[in-house]
Amino acid sequence: MANVDRPNGLRPVTTLSGGPWMGHVRSFPVDSSNGTAIFRGDAIILEDDGNVAPYASGGGVLLGVCVGAEVARAVAATEHPGYLPASTAGTVMVCVGPDVIYEIQEDSVGGAMVATNVGSNGDIAVTAGSTTTGVSKMELDSSDVIAKDSSAASAQLLVLGLVDRPDNAIGTEAKWLVRINESIFLHGSAGL
């Protein structure tokens, strides 16, 4: 059975110790100069001015992952479906724990990942989220992981394993467990 193509960005599921993710988050401001909407599951970077923004292809050490936008009655999208529109000042809740394990879907560009890709690093493939659901569409860049770039200490994610579920199998658009490798709270290290 083929995997369902349903990207959800990064979704916190557990911790490195095996304990459950308890929903611990921190609030961070977003200023109106941010020209990109922020969705649940988007990787987040800390800007020089103390505000946050969604990760954009090509750079930036990650702060964490957005798990929601603070509701502002004047901004309908923050209430439903629950994202912060572009060029809108507000507050987002970010999971910043360096020990959190996330689930993410691999993209379908560059071939499907295999079991030997566990332990490798890879970057995030950025796609705009859904204004209908409020959910991110960021994915794991499978071609980056497959290449096993030995200089990938700067790659955002470390692949820990395949999500073990009946509706998920190794192949295109599989769901993987990852940890943030390039974090402001950790020193990145080269993958296998």
Observed structural traits:
single chain, 192 residues, mainly beta, five-stranded antiparallel beta sheet, 2 helices, globular
Helix-strand pattern, N to C? EEEEEHEEEEEHEE
How much strand content do the residues show? 25-35%
Shape designation: globular
Instruction: Summarize the main sheet.
Output: 5 strands, antiparallel
What would you say this structure looks like, in words?
It is a single chain. This protein has 192 residues and is mostly beta strands. It is built from 2 helices and 12 strands, in the order βββββαβββββαββ. The strands form 3 sheets. Strands 1-7-12-11-8 form a 5-stranded antiparallel β-sheet. The protein has a 5-stranded antiparallel β-sheet with strand order 2-6-5-3-4, with no helix packed on it. Strand 3 (43-46) and strand 4 form a beta hairpin. The chain starts with 10 loop residues before the first strand and ends in a 12-residue tail after the last strand.
Topology:
Blueprint: E1 11-15, E2 26-30, E3 43-46, E4 52-54, E5 62-69, H1 76-79, E6 90-95, E7 100-105, E8 121-122, E9 124-125, E10 139-140, H2 142-147, E11 157-162, E12 175-180
Antiparallel strand pairs: 1-7, 2-6, 3-4, 3-5, 5-6, 7-12, 8-11, 9-10, 11-12
Short description:
With 192 residues, this protein is mainly β.
